[in-house]
Amino acid sequence: MKQMDIGTVGMWFVLDAMTAPESIEFAQKIEKLGYNTLWIPEGFGREPLAHAAQLLAHTKRLIIASGIANIWARDRMTMAAAANTVAEASGGRFLLGIGVSHKPIVDDLRGHNYKPYSYMKEYLPKMKSALYMAPKPKEPVPVVVAALHPKMLELAATHANGTHPYFVPPEHTAKVRAAIGLKPMICVEQAIILSTDAAKARARARSYMKTYVPQLPNYVNNLKNLGWADAEFENGCSDKLVDAIVAWGTEKQIQDRIEAHLKAGATQVCIQPLHPENDPHPDLKAVEAFAGLNKPLRIDPRASIWEHKQTGKKVSATRKSEAATRLTRCDALRMVHLCEPSRCVGAREDRSKTRRKRGVCRTFAP
Fold it and tell me: For residue 264, what is the enclosing H or E element?
């Protein structure tokens, strides 16, 4: 049975500032650099599944993921047919990310009645059971749901292969892993700016962030649930909030943020390399700088197992109830994770009060 190697560090970017040939060239470049996955969103430009098919046709091993495809733009049958078509044609190199988008876009621009949870709850099972009479891909198309809040996260964990959070700090990743357990994937987006100029980096970050906060309630409410006060969103957001959402600085500082997500429970961190000069194209310097962080990570959607080659350990769905009992706070690592206290270096260090030495959870953390 073929497993999909999505890797631990992927690429996420809006490619609409590029021509079609330029987007193909970019996909080929990141494939050559060693990235396993490229996430492309749906906004007001290219149709993501058609674009995914084009990129897949011009690459050899790169996985293309929709991050995300809007469920209000396609009925369940169309979404299933498109995903199966792209996956079968590419030899199983497509990952379907779907989401409910946002009320201003769905109601005002698309003319629908925005009821995100009830519609997604109905949508997922009908998409899975949709009639499709053409040859299917050899393995099921993995599905992740853009989910931030508890009820939608539960759907992502129980009716899909996991979740694709966007615009969140590592604290949210830890909260999500605690809520959904070990089995489901968490493929989290992280915007980055490779610049040590604080004024320039924060100005670029604010230019990016103004699209989302305070205009889109889904992101604002999620951050408030993490403890961010109303005042943090005023006047282009506080420096503290900007720094929490967009990782900027040296390569080491950005790497620390990526690792913070992974240690908090992320399956994959999808970096969005914003250009420090406000160029809408990706910062190729950052693209090249962080390619070496990517490690193999195979997923098997049929068996509901994810395996990390670095540890060689597997945890299957049959251990879900056991995993819930091991969800604990490791003070030595300052994170919430799944571990067996007797085998967790962090837990042992906590008991021995040697917190200065950073531990590693051998059961879960890479």
Answer: helix 251-264
Q: Which stretch of 17-31, 70-84, 286-300, 333-347 has the lowest confidence by average pLDDT?
A: 333-347
Separation of alpha carbons 85 and 103, rounded Å: 29
**How does 195-217 read in b/e, with b if 16+ C-beta sit within 10 Å?**
beeeeebbebbbebbeebbeebe
Bridge-based pairing state of the strands 162-163 and 185-193: parallel
What integer is the mean pLDDT of 186-207?
98
Cα–Cα distance measured from residue 2 to residue 7, given in angstroms and rounded to the nearest whole number = 15
- The CATH number of whichever domain residue 70 belongs to comes to 3.20.20.30
Domain count, the chain: 2
Q: How many CA atoms lie within 13 A of 136 on its CB side?
A: 10
First to last CA, the chain: 24
Residues 354 and 287 in one domain: no
Task: List, as own/partner pairs, every contact residues 351-355 make where C-beta atoms lie below 8 angstroms and the sequence separation is at least 24, other chains included.
Answer: 355/331
d(CA 175, CA 336): 8
The pair of structure tokens assigned to 236 is 């282009």
Residue 147 within a domain: yes
- DSSP string for residues in 85-116: HHHHHTTS-EEEEEE---HIIIIIIT-----H
What is the per-residue pLDDT for 1? 57
Same domain, 96 and 142: yes
Gap between the Cα atoms of 191 and 276, Å rounded: 12
Q: Which domain holds residue 117?
A: 4-315
Asked if residue 351 and residue 281 are part of one domain, the reply reads no
Q: What is the largest CA-CA distance in the chain?
A: 61
Determine the Cα–Cα distance for residues 361 and 357; give it in Å rounded to an integer: 13
More confident residue, 112 or 115: 115
97 within a domain of the structure (yes/no): yes
Of 296, 315, 334, the one marking the end of a domain is: 315
Residue 307 and residue 336 in one domain: no
